[in-house]
Amino acid sequence: MSGRDNDFVVVANRLPVDLNTAPDGTRTWSASPGGLVAALSPVLRTQQGCWVGWPGVPDAAPDPFYTDDGILLHPVRLNQADYEGFYEGFSNATLWPLYHDLIVPPVYNLDWWYAYREVNLRFADEVAEVAAEGATVWVQDYQLQLLPGILRQKRPDLTIGFFLHIPFPSADLYSQLPWRDELVRGLLGADVIGFHLESNARNFLDLARRLELPVSGEVSTRKITAHIETPDGRSVGVGAFPISIEVDEFTDFDDAALAGVDKLRADLGTPKHVILGVDRLDYTKGILQRLLAFEELLETGALDPAEVTLVQIATPSRERIEHYKKTRSQVEEAVGRINGSFSQLGKPVVHYQHRSIDKKVLRLLYRLADIMLVTPFKDGMNLVAKEYAACHDDAKGALVLSEFAGAADELPEANLCNPFDIESVKRSLLTAIKGLEDQPEVMAERMRIMHEQVMTHDVKLWSRAFLDSLKEAKRK
Ligand code: GDG
Asked: Which Pfam family is one of those matched by this entry (predicted)?
C-alpha cells in the first residue's frame, strides 16, 4: 500500500492515533489530541498526503492504513529501548528542557544520543521507501532534527522542509549540547527551515554565523528572505511561520452548543467568574505557578471563593519522566490544599481533571470561561490561547497570557504576564476580572481584535505559507 508513490510526505514523531485496549484485549486505534495533530490533519486532508510516524506505543505498529479522511498512515516501529533512549531520553529529557531555556536541567547521555541517531536513521529508511521521485517531504519537530541531513544523502531528488514546533534557544544555550554540530548539520539538509517566531529564526542564524557559515538577508514572517550557505554549496532558507489552529472547529456555536455552555456553568454551581486552564501536564506550562497565584488571591481576600471557580484540565503527558512526575505531584498537592482551605461541600473552588477531555466539551469550556489562564514559562506558540480567542466571536472573556508564549507576539491585546513573577500573574488575573466588570466595552474590543487575528491567520495560512516557500526553494 505504501510503495514509492507519495508526492507529499509529512514526517512527525507521532502518527495521529492512540492505541486503545478493551477489557477483552481487543485493540483499536483512535485519533489523539495534541498541538501537532491539530495543526497537520487539515493540511494532509486537503493534500492527499502520507504521514510517517511512530504510533505512540513501544513494540506495536499496525500495517500501513488509510484513515477515514483518506490519509495514508505509515507507522515506524520503536521498541522499548528506542522509546526510553530516543523519546523519553534524548527528545524529552535533553532537547525539550534545553530548547525551553533550561526550566529544568537537561540531561546529556551518550546512549540516548546513539538511540536518537539510530531512530532518525530508521525514519529516513521509511520515508525513502514511501516518497515518490522528486517528492516534497515535510519533517516536523525536535525529535527528527537529523532527518533532513540523512534524507538529503539518501535521496537527493527530494525537496525537504523542516519545521520546529518548540522554541529555538539562543546560540549560548544551544552550545551546551555535546552533539550541537551534528544536529545543525542534520537541519541544514533541509531546503527550508521554519520556526514559529522571527526571534527563534534569528537565534538559528546567530548559531550559523558562529559556525562561520555565510548568512545573507534578514528574517521575515511567512516568507523566506534569509539564507545560510552550506559547506556543500547549497542555500537553505530560514524564516518564521507562526502556527495556528483550524478555526472552524472553534466557531459556529448554535443554540444546542450555547445550551451546553449554560448547562456547564450550572454544573459548576453558577459561579460569577469561571477561570480556565488547559494544558498538557508539563513543567513548561506553569500550571503550579498559576495555582499558587490563585491561592494567594484567595488567601488575601482579593478573590472570593464563593464567586470564582478555577477549572484546570491537565492532560497526562510523558508520565515516566522524573520532572513530569514531580510536577504532577506538586500540582495535585496544590489543588488539594486550595480545595481543602477554600471549598464548600459540593462546591470545589478548583475543578481539576488529569485526563483528556472530548474536543466538543473543550470548545464549550472555552466559550464558558470568563478568564483563560495561559501561563507557560516558555512555549513555542501555544494553541490553547488561539483556540480560546477563536471561540469568542461573542467578544466576551479575557485572556491572561504569558509573555513567553509565542502566541503573545500575535495577541498583544491579552492581559500579558510574567509567569516567573507570581505578583505579575496575580496582577494580570485581577486586572482581567476588574476589566470585565468595570470596562466591559474595552475588554470586548480587545477580544474582538484577538478573535479577528486568529480567524484571519489560521493553520491553513501557516501550511500554505510554508509549502509555498518550499516550492519557491525547489524552483530556484
Ligand atoms: C507544541 C508546542 C505549539 C489539550 N488538552 C486537551 C486537548 N488539548 C489540545 C489543545 C491544543 C493542544 O492540545 C495543545 O497545544 P499547545 O500548542 O497548547 O501545546 P503543546 O502540546 O505543547 O504543543 C506548542 C504546538 O506544538 C504546535 O506547534 O503551539 O508551543 O509546545 O490544541 O486543544 N484536546 C482535547 N482534550 C484535551 O483534554 N481534545
From this structure: Glyco_transf_20
Single out the residue of 434, 415, 394 nearest to residue 272, CA to CA: 434
Q: How far is the CA of 317 from the centre of ligand 1 (A)?
A: 11
Whole-number percent of the chain with pLDDT over 70: 96
Write out pLDDT tens, residues 143-154.
Answer: 999 999 999 999
At the second CATH level, the architecture of 247-456 is 3-Layer(aba) Sandwich (3.40)
CB of 313 within 6 A of ligand 1: the answer is yes
Cα 173 to Cα 69: distance, rounded to the nearest angstrom: 42
- The alpha carbon of 341 and the centre of ligand 1 are apart by a number of angstroms equal to 31
Domain boundaries, the chain: 6-244+460-475, 247-456
* Residue from 375, 383, 411 to probe ligand 1 pocket by mutation (most atoms less than 8 Å from CB): 383
Mean pLDDT of 290-310: 98
Instruction: Out of 384, 386, 454, give the residue to mutate to test ligand 1, the one with the largest number of ligand atoms within 8 Å of its CB.
Output: 384
Alpha-carbon gap, residue 229 to 240, rounded angstroms:
18
Average pLDDT, the chain: 94
What is the CA(405)–ligand 1 centre distance, in A? 13
Pocket of ligand 1 contains residue 387 by CB under 6 Å: yes
Sequence-distant (≥ 6) Cβ neighbours of residue 124 within 8 angstroms: 147, 150, 151, 154
Rounded Cα–Cα distance for residues 350 and 336 (Å): 9
Residue 32 pLDDT:
63
Decide if 380 contacts 164 (C-beta within 8 A): yes
3-state secondary structure at position 237: strand
Strand partners, 308: 273
* Each residue's pLDDT tens digit, 453-465: 999 999 889 999 9
Compute the distance from residue 318 Cα to the ligand 1 centre, in Å.
14
Fold of 6-244+460-475: Rossmann fold (3.40.50)
Cell of 169: 534557544
